[in-house]
Design goal:
Layout lengths: L4 H7 L1 H15 L1 H4 L10 H31 L3 H29 L6 H4 L9 E2 L12 E3 L14 H9 L1 H10 L19 E4 L8 E9 L10 E4 L17 E5 L4 E9 L3 H17 L2 H5 L3 H9 L3 E3 L4 E5 L7 E8 L5 E9 L4 E8 L8 E7 L5 H11 L10 E2 L9 E11 L8 E10 L9
Parallel strand pairs: 1-16, 2-3, 5-6
Antiparallel strand pairs: 3-4, 4-7, 6-7, 8-13, 9-10, 10-13, 10-14, 11-12, 11-15, 15-16
Length: 449
């Protein structure tokens, strides 16, 4: 009995599979080898290669399905299994040949330019908005919710110091890291070095309270733009709704005034509560001096709490609100032995931008951490020889610094590394305690050399 034509065609389908496999291998040539090495290949040929591969492979699969279905329907199961086995054998050989071709070609990954991923940066880049805890911190968080919005808060501690210990208060304000270096101009709130009191963000930061102390002797003019008001009096109101809230000069019953400038939303209740929260926060920080009005108390307040419990070194960096390009740093560490701590700030190329070196505070108790204020922790001779010579924009001893690189408002990445060098090694031996990466900007007047 003569075999049906369709049966003979399907029985020889392995020939079709071989042809399809050869077509796929030939189509892979312009993919595996660069076009410049095969000038006779055009870009159109390379683009067509993928479609040829898909068509040949799809055609081979369709013939396999058709042949197996035909033989199964005619109860020729062994012939159907032979069809599947032959297809697998042909394409196994094709895959082996393709692998050899790929190894020989050593081809780059397709679309390398568009999908290349830089795996060098595996660290986190932090924002310099970490809270400091020492007495030099220029940013003080406040909670306005529990304060009034109709009259100004009372200042019992400040008024007591002003009326009974004016010289002590003046001496403290002249040496306190937080207050001593504020700009004396009437627009102090646009200059670096003043205290900023920040309410919590609720759907965006509503504003900030800028504060500084100012001595106004009898007969001297009040700072321009500031309205004198006493504690307990109603808030001064703007002349009309289009004007900003007036800046306040809070009278402390003597020569000292607490200048307060709100910058943010014009919503009066929000602004008034924030100003009152700022007044309360500042006055509460004067309570120790009011209760024990001695030079020793003032010195302790200027020094702050120098240690706390902990065993993991910490590094905090902050750019005070609206004081662009200046920074404060604070380190908690306990190397356990005498030596020198170094705070090195470098750019992405490893170039040293700033270096602070200062004696380490330490103890043999591993559960203690000691606070180091940067650059406040720098000894006087180091500060005179390094801080001022490198950045002469700020007063001697100021608790903030600039980074010499680039232009203001042009952010760049730096690494901040805390190292420890034991005594007697002259810096030849160093141990890295902390390394963090930050996004920072240069102060507008920072030299670029």
């Amino acid at each position: 009995m003569k075999e049906p034509l369709l049966s003979r065609i399907f029985r020889l389908s392995w020939v079709w599979h071989i042809l399809c496999a050869l077509a796929v291998l030939l189509a892979c040539v312009p993919i595996l080898w660069p076009l410049q090495e095969l000038p006779w290949l055009s870009a159109e040929h390379a683009a067509l290669a993928g479609r040829v591969v898909a068509t040949a492979l799809g055609g081979s699969v369709m013939v396999l399905i058709a042949s197996c279905t035909y033989f199964l329907l005619h109860m020729r199961n062994m012939r159907a299994f032979f069809q599947l086995g032959g297809w697998c054998a042909v394409w196994a050989v094709g895959v082996f040949v393709f692998i050899r071709m790929a190894i020989e070609a050593d081809a780059p990954a397709p679309y390398e330019n568009s999908t290349e991923i830089d795996t060098r940066q595996t660290y986190t880049i932090h924002q310099p908005n970490e809270n400091l805890t020492g007495p030099s911190a220029l940013v003080i968080p406040i909670s306005p919710e529990s304060h009034r919005a109709d009259v100004l808060e009372q200042t019992p501690n400040l008024q007591l110091l002003e009326t009974q210990h004016e010289e002590l208060l003046a001496g403290y304000l002249e040496q306190a890291p937080r207050w001593a270096f504020a700009d004396k101009s009437d627009t102090f709130y646009t200059k670096p070095g003043h205290v900023v009191l920040v309410p919590p963000a609720t759907g965006g930061i509503p504003g900030t309270v800028h504060a500084t102390f100012r001595t106004v002797a009898e007969g001297e003019p009040m700072p321009s733009g500031f309205q004198p008001v006493k504690p307990g009096e109603p808030f001064p109101e703007p002349a009309n709704d289009k004007e900003e809230l007036p800046d306040i000069a809070l009278e402390l019953s003597g020569k000292h005034y607490l200048l307060l400038a709100w910058r943010g939303t014009k919503h009066r209740e929000t602004a008034h509560k924030a100003i009152n929260a700022a007044i309360a926060a500042i006055d509460s920080r004067m309570q120790k001096l009011a209760e024990t009005p001695t030079e020793e108390t003032a010195a302790r307040m200027c020094r702050g709490k120098i240690k706390r419990l902990g065993n993991t070194p910490e590094l905090h960096l902050i750019e005070p609100n609206n004081q662009y390009g200046i920074y404060q740093a604070e380190v908690y560490a306990n190397p356990g032995r005498p030596g020198t701590l170094l705070l090195a700030i470098r750019d992405t190329e490893g170039n040293l931008l700033r270096l602070f070196s200062f004696p380490a505070r330490y103890s043999t108790n591993p559960a203690e951490l000691f606070r180091h204020d940067i650059p406040g922790a720098v000894s006087d001779w180091m500060r005179e020889n390094s801080t001022i010579s490198s950045v002469g924009n700020f007063p001697l001893g100021a608790p903030f610094f600039a980074i010499k690189c680039g232009d203001s408002h042009q952010y760049f990445e730096v690494s901040v590394e805390l190292q420890f060098s034991p005594s007697g090694t002259n810096g030849a031996v160093t141990e890295t305690l902390i390394k963090r990466h930050y996004k920072v900007q240069a102060y507008e007047n920072t030299p670029s050399e």
